[in-house]
Amino acid sequence: RELNLLQIAPDVLWRPFNTLSGGEQTKVRLARLFVDEENFPLIDEPTNHLDITSRGHVASYLQQKTGFIVVSHDRQFIDDVVDHVLAIEKSQLVLYKGNYTTYDTQKQQKDSYEQEQNAKLKKEITRLQQTAAEKAEWSRGRERDKLGSPTKKGSGGIFDTGAIGARAARTMKRSKAIAKRMDEQIQDKSALLKDIEYIDPLNMYPLNSHHDVLLQAENFVLGYDRPLFQPLTFSIQQQDILGIQGANGSGKSSLIQALFSTFTGAMSGDIQLAHQIKVSTVRQNYEDNRGTLAAFAEMQGIAYQDLLSNLKKLGLERTVFQTPIEKMSMGQRKRVELAKSLATPADLFIWDEPLNYLDVFNQQQLIEVITTAKPTMLLIEHDRYFLDQIATKQIKLIKPKAND
Questions:
Q1: How far is CA 300 from CA 291, 318, 378, 387, in A?
Q2: Do the two domains 2-90 and 213-397 of this chain adopt the same fold?
Q3: Is the distance from CB of 345 to CB of 178 less than 8 angstroms?
């Protein structure tokens, strides 16, 4: 019953688990969680390996369930399935009522208010510091009056009848009390400053190509023993961002392989990259990224400081900078692949599922840099929200009908 609700084919029941696709394995694990009525379901990244259609199946399934915790970086998916959001903010857990959109709105309002308060507090602290400095200088002046000038005859304490000394002492005592109060106010105001989380903007380097059309396909088809998708016709012009969708196995990654002449199956129709353009890629498989970051940057022909800057902004700790890439975690290695592409000046950016292993803050960074830099892109991604935010046009790969 549970597998049926997840729209899994009945024959999956009789196949060895290790022969199932990543998406099928995810659905089976999910069904198993809800068959077990004795334990509370904890669901970690259920949209991994799922295409848009399968994500919809899982979302519909979870909408029928109650009492579970799900961890996900897919905003649209979270919107569809949750009624509370537990967010980690500045090393604290904060519970919000509502879905992700509600949380995001409340969080932005909260951050905006705290930023305004911080600006006011910083202005007040600066004013207090200036006042304290003026009082301190005035106090030192009164001290000089008491001691007198060594070059001025008859000044200071030598000829003082006691009046100047007493007045200076009272003035100094009062000014020190004022300075102490100023310091206390500065400390009090500083303690009120909020530790606000800022999203650092990334850097990207799109080139202005002299080509009007950078990529064009006409009646293009890939296949092995049969076509992977129905004939494709599209073009990518300057500052176009073409989002490509399709079910798992529909030929999305094969399309990218065809662009770089690494596809081993049959091709028909026509697909062409503009002549002598620079292309920057984010790949799904980047096992060949190896060595130190410095050596990697040199091999890729990119500025080392640009690579490090984007890695730091993407959340890679400085302590990892000296670690060989092949010894990094998968999330860290994904950030290296992404930072490499961002640091590469290019006419056309081709990204294959760039959001894998990235949290929502990283995703927002990408949305902002792409919106600002306006690159020309071909983008394969299953995240509907991300595509809707940045794609200027979208196409869907459709499997041929059985009798085609």
A1: 12, 21, 21, 28
A2: yes
A3: no
Residue 168: Cβ within 10 Å count: 21
pLDDT value, residue 183: 74
pLDDT digits (tens, 9 = 90+) for 80-131: 999 999 988 777 888 999 999 999 899 888 888 888 877 887 888 788 778 7
Angle between helices 52-63 and 22-35 (to 10 degrees): 0
**pLDDT band for position 51 (50/70/90)?**
confident
* Beta carbons within 8 Å of 224's beta carbon, 6+ residues apart: 265, 266
State residue 232 phi and psi, 5-degree precision.
Answer: -105, 135
Q: Which of 48-57, 63-72, 251-260, 337-346 has the lowest mean pLDDT?
A: 48-57
Residue labelled with tokens 């085609």: 404
Q: What is the CATH number of domain 2-90?
A: 3.40.50.300
- Domain 213-397 sits in CATH at 3.40.50.300
- Of 383, 403, 399, whose CA–CA distance to 391 is shortest? 383
DSSP alpha helix (H) spans, 205-290: 252-259
- pLDDT of the residue at 142: 60
Q: What is the pLDDT of residue 163?
A: 58
Distance CA 343, CA 27 (A): 37
Return the domain boundaries, the chain. Answer: 2-90, 107-192, 213-397
User: Helical H runs in 44-162?
Assistant: 52-63, 75-81, 100-147
Say how far apart CA 233 and CA 29 lie, in whole Å: 38
State yes or no: pLDDT of 197 exceeds 70: no
Provide CB contacts within 8 A for 347, sequence distance 6+: 206, 207, 209, 211, 214, 274, 277, 278, 279, 376
Distance CA 342, CA 376 (A): 13
